[in-house]
């Protein structure tokens, strides 16, 4: 019974956060300087009457509370509105960019998590060894490097090995295998950049939380039982140390949807990060609101999942 | 076992990625880098420069501008005749021109397009200003279009409106939601749109039945870049064939690159420094918070005189610009105005100092007279560098500058509601000067809420407005040119803005793939961003377009090396692990 109440409490909290995000999004982006109609018509022959027509078309001439009401009621119906810039439903615009973003950020997050946790465990287990010093040093350096710069550097250093932009070439054969290979080829540099930059985070968290467990008595017991060092680490130390890393991983997975603005910009990857950037220059209110709802929604959902998962991973944590 | 599986997977992936994609055999493709998003492919909605540029390839206009000298030439119509009272224009659409689906192009298509814009406000979104003066458009037969205007309009041969096929668009019920993505898109231009993936690329195919003759190659691809550095690199690597909008440093970096030819062209753009002349709304109410000292034309002239335009051209534009003067850039030679000896304001700090003293702004104890805000756009190299020069130059005449570099939106907002003293701005001009001149009439100022205006510099001058009205109904071109020059002289004399420089358009192309491009105008003209489609249409492939397979070989070698290294590491750690028990 109490478990059920707690679960509903969690779900309600998540739903409330989403509503707050939707409300915040509306007012937040209205504060962004700039007039969408002026940006839309800038540099073109325009008359005041045409500007007024555009304002009416997008409902920008109505009082703010009316605009908010119609935005919020359509949001409840699942309608995110129409983008000023692309003249298409926001949901469509976001959906077509979601795939590339999930591919790039998802792939590199999985690699970075795997590599980072693995390196973190190794580094902590052999603290102050050459391996520890080298991995910590290298990953910290890469973390400190500006993403933009690293991306450009990789692009230059690899010369003509990898394409410098986008997700696909325009003259690749249309069959699935060629297209998939082409996407893979384009994916190498941007995901390498992302992995290099974020890997350190997982590595350091894993390393420090494992270090805290290193001198725990239960490890001595495990060793005394005659377990091999490898098994002591894998079966006893790591499961106890992995919780903080799990939190981080889920937070990150939530942010996958938000894309990676700088990496996407350097490699002209057609993802959500780029879309966010473009939407801000309008400002394209409906697109910005839609993006905020989608990205914040992903974070909220992932956080919820992480909380639920704690209970499974560690029976001591009674979340649900 | 797991080790072997990993190894196998690594090798397979490497080989897979290293297999060259089945490249398009036998087709000649021109790949162009674009750095601006495409907003819409619907010609009634598309407002971005990149979109209208692609639109020009898909749809002809009623008339066109010749490649060599930009004079008005045949478009959809080949003859035109105004009535004696200049209120009725008759255009003739010749027989023989066809839409890309084989249907004939007729006067009905033209009338349909304009009438759609006259009756549907959404259809006026992009090009509505061209039809505001129309009272009716009819097509008495398939060859004749008759346009009646409310008042005589001199720009009737500069109607930059894509003409769409009636048989396709009459079935469109809702222009607002129509993305125009029924591929291939039926059009009348030299290319046919076949694919558009948002944020990635646009593919067009040569229209073999184009009435001027088919283009000399098969496909035209626009690939999207988010940053111009990557576009320049892609050109250097041969991934794209044509790049424009380069910064001077990027242009210089391609100087000795084999296989690359650079094109330094006279551009349509100019950069200017707005000087808030005491901004007022359309009703004459003050708006914004400009420094009152700038209401005095003597102060504005002194500021203009204190700016060393030559230094800006040499040091900020690295020589890739021409010194500014009138509002129309020299690429439109007929309309361009240069001050005569008596009108010219030479760079002269001493005279500027004297003028400011005389205007009643003596230097204070700290050596300054007053201070001004200079608003520019953060991240735009020109603003960042030029503001440093301006700070020094105006400092020499006792004007302290408070430089504020802000986001694009903030800059637009400041100039729209006149919360600036000095601000950077810039415009791209058209073949007909009406648009750029019209920005400075009193009527373009906004309403009380700062909205509904399109003024550039909050200029409002009776002499200028009278000249503007006269040129708009002056059908004798010689006389109109004279009026247009007088307007520019008046603007220069009243200085609501200083035209700092006419920027060169910096472009480069792979001359090992494409031997030549048609520039507009023929001498010193641009390939991209023309008032037409000649650059893409006239491109001629090099005798043997080189194909490169080397990138894949190199990639395969490196990938193989990396995966063997990974394999070695895995094997090593596994072996260490196997013996871990013993070692402890």
UniProtKB/TrEMBL annotation, chain A:
**Keywords assigned:** Cell membrane, Membrane, Transmembrane, Transmembrane helix, Transport
What protein family is recorded?
A: Belongs to the binding-protein-dependent transport system permease family.
- Note the superkingdom of the native organism: Bacteria
Cellular localization per UniProt: Cell membrane
Mind telling me what this protein is named? ABC transporter permease
Major location (coarse): membrane
Q: How does it sit in the membrane?
A: Multi-pass membrane protein
Q: Which Pfam families match?
A: BPD_transp_1 (PF00528), BPD_transp_1_N (PF19300)
Does the UniProt entry include the keyword Membrane? yes
InterPro entries per UniProt: BPD_transp_1_N (IPR045621), MetI-like (IPR000515), MetI-like_sf (IPR035906)
Ranges that cross the membrane: 7-29, 102-125, 137-157, 187-205, 241-261, 285-306
Q: Which residues form the ABC transmembrane type-1 domain?
A: 98-310
UniProtKB/TrEMBL annotation, chain B:
Task: Give the stretches traversing the membrane.
Answer: 552-573
Q: Which residues form the signal peptide?
A: 1-24
Q: Pfam families from the entry?
A: SBP_bac_5
Query: Where is it localised?
Result: Cell envelope
* Alphabetized CDD domains for the sequence: PBP2_NikA_DppA_OppA_like
Residues in Solute-binding protein family domain copies: 72-434
Task: Give the protein family.
Answer: Belongs to the bacterial solute-binding protein 5 family.
- What is this protein identified as? Peptide ABC transporter substrate-binding protein
Q: Please report the organism this UniProt entry assigns to the protein.
A: Lentzea flava
């Amino acid at each position: 019974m109490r478990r059920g109440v707690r679960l509903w409490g969690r779900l309600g909290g998540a739903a409330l956060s989403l509503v707050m995000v939707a409300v915040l999004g509306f007012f937040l982006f209205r504060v962004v300087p700039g007039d969408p109609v002026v940006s839309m018509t800038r540099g073109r022959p325009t008359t005041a009457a045409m500007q007024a027509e555009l304002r009416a078309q997008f409902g920008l001439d109505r009082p703010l509370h009316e605009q908010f009401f119609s935005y919020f009621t359509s949001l409840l119906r699942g309608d995110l509105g129409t983008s000023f810039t692309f003249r298409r439903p926001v949901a469509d615009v976001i959906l077509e960019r979601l795939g590339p973003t999930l591919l790039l950020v998802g792939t590199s997050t999985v690699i970075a998590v795997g590599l980072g946790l693995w390196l973190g465990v190794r580094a902590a287990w052999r603290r102050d060894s050459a391996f520890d010093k080298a991995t910590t040093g290298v990953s910290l350096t890469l973390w400190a490097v500006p993403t933009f710069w690293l991306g450009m550097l990789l692009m230059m250093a690899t010369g003509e090995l990898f394409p410098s932009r986008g997700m696909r070439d325009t003259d690749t054969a249309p069959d699935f295998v060629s297209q998939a290979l082409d996407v893979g080829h384009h994916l190498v540099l941007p995901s390498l950049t992302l992995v290099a930059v974020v890997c350190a985070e997982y590595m350091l968290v894993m390393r420090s939380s494992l270090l805290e467990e290193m001198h725990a008595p239960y490890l001595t017991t495990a060793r005394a039982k005659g377990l091999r060092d490898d098994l002591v680490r894998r079966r006893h130390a790591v499961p106890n140390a992995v919780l903080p890393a799990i939190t981080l991983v889920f937070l990150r997975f939530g942010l996958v949807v938000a894309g990676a603005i700088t990496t996407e910009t350097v490699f002209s990857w057609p993802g959500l990060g780029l879309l966010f950037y473009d939407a801000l220059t309008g400002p394209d209110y409906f697109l910005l609101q839609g993006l905020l709802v989608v990205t914040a929604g992903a974070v909220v959902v992932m956080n919820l999942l992480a909380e639920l998962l704690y209970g499974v991973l560690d029976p001591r944590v009674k979340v649900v | 076992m797991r080790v072997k599986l990993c190894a196998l997977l690594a090798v397979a992936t490497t080989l897979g990625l290293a297999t060259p994609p089945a490249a398009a055999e036998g087709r000649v493709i021109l790949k162009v880098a674009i750095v601006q998003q495409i907003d819409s492919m619907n010609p009634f909605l598309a407002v971005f420069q990149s979109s209208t540029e692609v639109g020009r390839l898909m749809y002809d206009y009623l008339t066109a501008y010749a490649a060599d000298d930009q004079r008005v030439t045949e478009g959809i119509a080949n003859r035109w005749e105004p009535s004696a009272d200049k209120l009725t224009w008759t255009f003739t659409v010749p027989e023989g021109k066809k839409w890309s689906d084989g249907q004939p192009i007729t006067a009905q298509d033209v009338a349909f397009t304009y009438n759609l814009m006259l009756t549907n406000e959404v259809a006026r979104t992009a090009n509505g200003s061209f039809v505001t003066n129309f009272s009716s458009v009819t097509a008495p037969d398939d060859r004749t279009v008759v346009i009646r205007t409310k008042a005589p309009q001199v720009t009737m041969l500069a109607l930059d409106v894509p003409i769409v096929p009636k048989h396709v668009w009459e079935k469109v019920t809702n222009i607002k939601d129509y993305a125009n993505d029924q591929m291939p898109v039926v059009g009348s231009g030299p290319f046919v749109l076949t694919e558009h993936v948002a944020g990635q690329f646009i593919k067009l195919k040569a229209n073999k039945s184009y009435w001027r003759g088919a283009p000399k190659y098969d496909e035209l691809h626009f690939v999207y870049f988010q940053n111009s550095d990557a576009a320049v690199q892609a050109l250097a690597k041969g991934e794209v064939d044509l790049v424009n909008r380069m910064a001077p440093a990027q242009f210089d970096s391609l100087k000795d690159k084999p296989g690359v030819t650079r094109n330094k062209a006279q551009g349509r753009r100019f950069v200017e420094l707005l000087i808030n002349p005491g901004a007022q709304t359309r009703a004459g109410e003050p708006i914004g918070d400009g420094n009152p000292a700038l209401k005095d034309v003597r102060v504005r002239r002194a500021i203009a005189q204190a700016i060393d335009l030559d230094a800006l051209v040499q040091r900020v534009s690295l020589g890739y610009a021409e010194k500014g003067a009138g509002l129309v850039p020299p690429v439109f030679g007929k309309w361009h105005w240069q001050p005569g000896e008596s009108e010219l304001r030479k760079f002269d700090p001493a005279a500027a100092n004297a003028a400011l003293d005389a205007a009643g702004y003596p230097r204070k104890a700290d050596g300054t007279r007053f201070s001004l805000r200079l608003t520019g756009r953060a991240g735009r190299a020109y603003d960042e560098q030029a503001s440093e020069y301006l700070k020094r130059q105006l400092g020499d005449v006792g004007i302290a500058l408070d430089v504020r570099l802000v986001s694009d939106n903030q800059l637009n907002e400041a100039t729209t509601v006149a919360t600036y003293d000095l601000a950077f701005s810039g415009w791209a001009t058209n073949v007909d000067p009406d648009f750029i001149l019209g920005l400075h009439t009193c009527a373009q100022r906004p309403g009380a809420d700062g909205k509904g205006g399109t003024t550039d510099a909050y200029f409002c001058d009776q002499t200028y407005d009278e000249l503007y009205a006269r040129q708009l109904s002056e059908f004798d071109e010689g006389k109109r040119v004279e009026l247009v020059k007088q307007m520019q002289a008046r603007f220069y004399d009243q200085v609501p803005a200083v035209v700092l420089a006419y920027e060169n358009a910096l472009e480069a192309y792979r001359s090992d793939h494409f031997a030549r491009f048609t520039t507009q105008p023929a001498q010193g003209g641009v390939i991209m961003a023309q008032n037409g489609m000649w650059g893409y249409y006239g491109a001629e492939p090099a005798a043997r377009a080189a194909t490169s397979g080397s990138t894949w070989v190199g990639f395969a070698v490196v990938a193989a090396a990396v995966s063997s290294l990974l394999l070695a590491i895995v094997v090593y750690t596994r072996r260490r692990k196997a013996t871990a028990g013993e070692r402890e």
